Amino acid sequence: MPSTFFGLTIASSGLSAYQIALNTTANNISNVQTDGYSRQEANRVASAAIRAHAKYGSMGSGVTTTSIKQVRNAYYDAKYWYNQSSVGLYETRLNYLQQIENHFIDNDSVKGFSTILNTMFNDLDTLKNNAGDVSTRQQFIGSAQNLTTFFNSVSAGLSEIQSNVNEEIKSTVQQINAIAEKIASLNHQINVIEVQGGYANELRDERALLIDQLSEIVPTEVSEVPVINTHNPETPTGANYYTVIIGGQVLVDTEEYESLTCVARENKVNQSDIEGLYDIVWSKTGNTFAAGANSMSGSLKALFDIRDGNNGENFTGSAKVVDSRHIQVVSPSITAMEAMSMPEEGLLTIYGKNYKYTGFTFETDAEGNITSYTFELEDAMSQQDRLKVDGMKVSIGSSVASMGIPYYMAQMNQFLRSFCSKFNDIMLQGEDLNGNLTNDYSFFTGTHTVTGEEFVFGGSDITYGTVTDSTASTYYKLTAANICISTVCAKDPARLGAQYASETDDGVDNYALIEDLAELKSNTVLFRGGNAESFLKCMISDISIDTQESKIFEKNYLNVQATLETQRMSVSGVDEDEEALNLIKFQNAYNLSSKMVSVMAEIYQKLIEETGV
User: Fold this and answer.
1) Residue 601 within any structural domain of the chain
2) Would you say 254 and 184 are in contact if contact means Cβ atoms under 8 Å apart?
3) Integer Cα distance of 113 and 406 in angstroms
4) Is the CB of residue 327 less than 8 Å from the CB of residue 374?
5) Which residue in 145, 188, 254, 561 has the fewest CB atoms around it within 10 Å?
């Protein structure tokens, strides 16, 4: 039979239980504005009944608080983390696409390509009527220099964006490593606490907040399974295996974690790339972490898309071994000299293996289309390698189906090579103000990166160009970064060819050559089936489509994020009204237990003091 004073024990359990409940509510209220905090709940069960030697058999012994646990829904968490990688992808892409777009603005406040091009051709038209005036010639040369300066500045701006993105990739990798280390540390702390029978609510919240951050960077999957006691599988150990997977590879395995390392490329992938772009590898194994793969998502993927995006237009072809040091590539994807975007020195990837090349030549057909390339290798291939690669697919770099910095650089280079080659071809047939032929220089030229020497275009080797020469017989080496006006004309405007040499008898006022130059603005196909004027339209169209797509998807995924966040918060968020109601509810329960103590005290006083024995 229960003790006479058993009622106090029952009342005491109520006081204890509702004191805990009130404290838990107070903790929820104090963290109502804490990021990542999950509402906690004190879980109670009826205490085990005691056996009474009476007809009723057993008697309740009060209430017991079994645990204080955070309230979360694993399904909503997984959905939220899945969506976050898409949010990170489109937010980051949109940010950098808008920066790229700023470099092609042309309006009243910013003079862009169209304004500068129109000014140059207007000055050319003025020159037509006054070809003998040196100041008029200088005015045209000055406006042409403005055009080259525009492309120089755009190229420098895009290169700066590429550099900034590259550094952000490095800092993002460091952030991933820091998150991985912290999660592994939290896993250890959580298991230590929970093995002893506790529940590490705050540490679990901290860990979930880290997963929120990580999932925006890379696609993240989480798995938590209990550690089984092999000697007694039915007895819980309290510990858990907690695994974090990014991009299909394990980053954290309970208390162990892997880290990523940025490795600077020794060779460029695209002609206009800056030096030292980073690739990401796993620190322990050295295996590549393909953050830019099509299957990836997240802000890190967006950074690779912007930095390396070539719209899937990287160089590819089929390998044909010439000898141990030369590989011919037939059926190439790039068949026009203007569109060449591969670096002068780089890596050929054949059958999963890289071969470094130090230069290349190319062959053309009667229409000027490139039929094959011959690459010179730095190291001789073994006989086994020659047999293995013959007939296999060749590529330089990867196909990145996004319009990033390399794509826009390549588009500018392609336009400039087409425009400048046609402009120079006409100018080469001219005669200057002093009656000298102008076939010994190119009006639009470029400078060598190292020597500063100006390129000479239009030589006899034009259909078979060795691109490693200090001067270029083809326009491959002309880029938006190095284009300039020949110093011959810049120093002496009289050297500008303003009339055809064959028409000198008509005097300096013959302007057939200038009229032919003027045709390049509107009546000559130069770029993607359009004329010079359409270049900016093509660029703006590309950027606008990409930017608009990113805006739409960013908005869509942010809406999904808001919906999932609402669903998560409906479960784990602290609701002020609900907690206020809990305060009253638990206060009343505590007061009732207190009243029970008072009642029992009066009974015991009556029993002890007034009942005779």
Assistant:
1) yes
2) yes
3) 19
4) yes
5) 188
* Tokens, residue 18: 């509702």
- Measured CA to CA, the distance from residue 50 to residue 61 in angstroms comes to 7
In 3D, which of 286, 287, 267 has the Cα closest to residue 277? Answer: 267
Long-range contact set of residues 506-515: C-beta below 8 Å, sequence gap at least 24: 508/131, 508/132, 508/433, 509/131, 509/132, 511/128, 511/129, 511/131, 513/426, 513/427, 513/429, 513/430, 514/124, 514/125, 514/127, 514/128, 514/131, 515/128
- Look at residues 440, 524, 551, 535 and name the one whose alpha carbon lies nearest to residue 489: 440
In a domain, 50, yes or no: yes
Does the pLDDT at position 483 exceed 70?
Answer: yes
- Residue 64 near residue 44, CB atoms below 8 Å: yes
Neighbouring C-beta atoms of residue 196, cutoff 10 Å: 8
- What sign does the CA torsion over 167, 169, 170, 174 have? positive
Longest CA–CA span in the chain (Å) reads: 148
User: Residue 220's closest CA among 122, 392, 80, 56?
Assistant: 80
Beta carbons of 309 and 404 less than 8 angstroms apart: yes
Tens-digit pLDDT profile for residues 91-129: 999 999 999 999 998 887 788 888 999 999 999 999 988
Structure tokens of 456?
């000479």
In sequence order, what are the residues at sequence separation of 6 or more whose Cβ sits closer than 8 angstroms to the Cβ of residue 433? 131, 132, 134, 137, 494, 495, 496, 498, 508
Name the residue among 256, 130, 83 with its Cα closest to residue 514.
Answer: 130
Is 53 domain-assigned?
Answer: yes
Q: Flag whether 252 is in a domain.
A: no
Domain span at 12: 1-71+579-613
Q: What values do phi and psi take at 34, rounded to 5?
A: -85, 125
Q: Are 550 and 403 in contact (CB under 8 A)?
A: no
Distance linking the first and last C-alpha atoms of the chain: 20
CA dist 17 and 21 (Å) reads 6
404 contacts 270 by C-beta, under 8 angstroms: no
Complete DSSP assignment for 274-302: PTT-EEEEETTT--B--TTSTT--SHHHH
pLDDT tens for 175-220 read: 999 999 999 999 999 999 999 988 999 999 999 999 999 999 999 9
pTM metric for this prediction: 0.89
Please report, as a single letter, which amino acid is at residue 163. Answer: S
CA distance 174 to 183: 14
- Number of neighbours of residue 504 by Cβ within 10 angstroms: 13
Domain count, the chain: 1
DSSP 317-384: EEEEEEETTEEEEES-S--SGGG--S-SSEEEEETTEEEEEEEEEEEE-TTS-EEEEEEEESSPPPHH
Strands 444-446 and 499-500: unpaired
- Render the burial of 436-456: b for 16+ CB within 10 Å, e for the rest: eebeebbbbbbbeeeeeebbb
